[in-house]
């Protein structure tokens, strides 16, 4: 199903009526970064200050700083902010949810661990999850400590460490700490402003509690974590899902035209 622009507009208008909100859509397969900010600001200026904004979000994540900037910008233009996740809002995109008052999820919707992307130390065009680098260091440390052979550091660790710039290692560590700081700040200001005791628990779970970058946190598990989840059902979910399918098909057709 390919939705024409006017058809997508009709779905968005219906979604706005049901949700009593203004709806924005961010749908992308490229990493989330600051390039979103100027187009977002232009859209928000056109809308003007309003009571409630819903962000329909499809993203596999990106830079550590961008989600915080997006939340702060949207919050300048509304009193209430919600994120609608048709399918995937993973990694850094999940951080956007922490700055919302609620997240709207369906049966297939997924959040994920907060694990921002950083540049590969050797191949700058390749982005890797920062937690993967941290787990590499953890593996090296355990290998050295637990090995009865004192030469293990020379055999295993030194060749790997020689490929990493110390400044780069520090930057990776800073990114991990920044993701925790942003998560704590967003939760304490917004989603958990009335339940501060949940902030550290949920921050720890999302930044350190999952070993897989792609771990799927569905709506039930998100609720168990304490995240404010609205379950989309009936006509609401049908509209959200049809919007997702329409944008997905649109992106695939654009890709095929470029091939």
Distance separating the two termini: 21 Å
CATH architecture: Alpha-Beta Complex
- The CATH first-level class comes to Alpha Beta
Total of domains: 1
The total of beta strands comes to 9
What percent strand? 15-25%
Helix-strand pattern, N to C? HEHEHEEHEEEEHHHHHEH
Give me the Rg, rounded.
Answer: 20 Å
How many distinct helices? 10
What are the segments in which pLDDT stays under 50 over at least 5 consecutive residues?
Answer: none
Protein name: ClpP class periplasmic serine protease
InterPro entries: ClpP/crotonase-like_dom_sf, Pept_S49_ser-pept_pro
Keywords: Hydrolase, Protease
Pfam families: SDH_protease
Description of the molecule:
This is ClpP class periplasmic serine protease. It holds the Pfam family SDH_protease. Keywords: Hydrolase, Protease. GO terms for molecular function: peptidase activity. The chain is of the alpha/beta class and 259 residues long. Helix 1 runs antiparallel to helix 10 (234-258), helix 5 (130-146) runs antiparallel to helix 6 and helix 5 packs across helix 7 (166-191). The protein contains 10 helices and 9 strands. The strands form 3 sheets. It has a 5-stranded parallel β-sheet with strand order 1-2-3-5-9, with helices on both faces. The chain has a single domain (5-117, 170-258), classed as Alpha-Beta Complex (2-enoyl-CoA Hydratase, Chain A, domain 1). The longest helix is centred in the last third of the chain and has 26 residues, at 166-191.
């Amino acid at each position: 199903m390919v939705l024409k622009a006017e058809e997508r507009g009709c779905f968005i208008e219906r979604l706005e009526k049901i949700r009593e909100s203004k709806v924005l859509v961010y749908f992308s397969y490229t990493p989330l970064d600051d390039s979103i900010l100027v187009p977002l600001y232009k859209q928000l200026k056109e809308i003007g200050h309003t009571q409630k904004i819903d962000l329909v979000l499809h993203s596999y994540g990106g830079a550590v700083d961008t989600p915080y900037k997006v939340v702060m910008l949207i919050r300048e233009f509304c009193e209430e902010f919600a994120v609608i996740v048709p399918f995937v809002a993973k990694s850094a995109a999940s951080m956007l949810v922490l700055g919302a008052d609620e997240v709207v999820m369906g049966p297939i919707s997924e959040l994920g661990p907060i694990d921002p992307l950083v540049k590969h130390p050797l191949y700058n065009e390749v982005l890797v999850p920062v937690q993967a680098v941290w787990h590499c260091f953890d593996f090296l440390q355990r290998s050295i400590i637990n090995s009865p052979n004192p030469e293990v550091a020379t055999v295993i660790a030194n060749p790997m460490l020689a490929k990493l710039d110390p400044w780069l290692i520090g930057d990776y560590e800073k990114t991990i700490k920044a993701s925790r700081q942003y998560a704590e700040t967003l939760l304490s200001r917004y989603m958990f402003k009335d339940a501060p005791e949940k902030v550290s628990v949920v921050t720890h779970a999302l930044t350190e509690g999952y070993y897989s970058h792609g771990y799927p946190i569905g709506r039930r598990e998100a609720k168990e974590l304490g995240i404010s989840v609205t379950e989309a059902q009936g006509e609401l979910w049908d509209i959200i899902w049809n919007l997702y399918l329409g944008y997905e098909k649109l992106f695939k057709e654009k890709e095929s035209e470029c091939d």
